[in-house]
Design goal:
It is a single chain. The chain contains four helices and two strands; from the N terminus they run ααααββ. By secondary structure, the chain is mostly helical. The protein has a domain of 68 residues. A two-stranded antiparallel sheet has the order 1-2. Helices cover 51% and strands 5% of the residues. Helix 1 packs across helix 2.
Amino acid sequence: MPQGDKSKYTDKQKRKAEHIAESYEERGVAKDEAERRAWATVNKDDGGGNKSGSGRGTRTGNPAAHRGGEKGGKASAARPASERSKSAKKAAETRKKNATGSWGTPPVFRIGEALDRTGYFSFAYA
């Protein structure tokens, strides 16, 4: 594959590079430099072209996409402790509620018991 050839990249990778380049241009980076940075980011994320015959690649977890999480973490740290504590308590309450379900505590099954579609127990003996 000659240098600069993008034939081994999928359409999705090309769109991704285009969006990244646009973002750089909006922030005042020159067009050529924005394009270089965009393709470097795609290569970093995906390990090169993913089209058939390019050696393909394994899923890498899109590390560049995790920058948003870092930014969100900084925003959270900037909030007052009382606000973070209130939010954490609310989240814990939701997790507790969702863990038990709307019916209360989860049912305990014994050997041979099964919950049928109607919600009633049916007994199956072997």
